[in-house]
Amino acid sequence: MFPKMVLWGIGITGLLMLIDAAIKTKKVAVAGDEAIANVQEERSKMRDTLVFQILVPGIVMLLTFLILMVFGFYVASAFLVFVIYCYHDYRVDPASLKRKVYVKGGIFAVLVTLFMYLVFTLLLGLPAPSGVLF
Could you tell me if 87 and 80 are in contact, meaning their C-beta atoms sit under 8 angstroms apart? Predict the structure, then answer.
């Protein structure tokens, strides 16, 4: 029953988003230059949202999945931690991306991955997902 409710919720939300887009399009057709400028600003925000909050994280997740399948859990984890560290720093201040950030990200990724290895593999004895190569 719960999955059906979630599915209905997603469907209703999607329908409401379509209705909202249709209403905004109709307002632009009727409105003057000021409304058109507002719509262009809104489109720019939507483009930024699409790129930085949907497209880039989606590509990173896909790459992490592929790395997981080929190299295994720990290499994929280190990659994901490194990319998230650098991406967060880029989103905060794009001008601050220098070699120092990459070195810190690499060290942080290695430390986090080492910690996961110690906890999950050595202490708990849980097997990590392996890839084709490792």
Answer: no
What is the spatial distance between Cα 42 and Cα 71, in angstroms, rounded to a whole number? 41
Question: How far is the C-alpha of 105 from the C-alpha of 88, rounded, in Å?
Answer: 10
Full-model pTM: 0.68
Length in residues, the chain = 134
For 125: left if phi > 0, alpha if psi spans -120 to 50, otherwise beta; the answer is left
Angstrom CA distances, 2 to 7, 9, 29, 87, stand at 9, 10, 41, 35
Question: How far is Cα 120 from Cα 16, in angstroms, rounded to an integer?
Answer: 44
Q: How many CB atoms lie within 10 A of CB 93?
A: 9
Enumerate residues 6+ apart whose C-beta is below 8 A from 18: none
pLDDT digit string, tens, across residues 113-132: 999 999 989 999 988 888 88
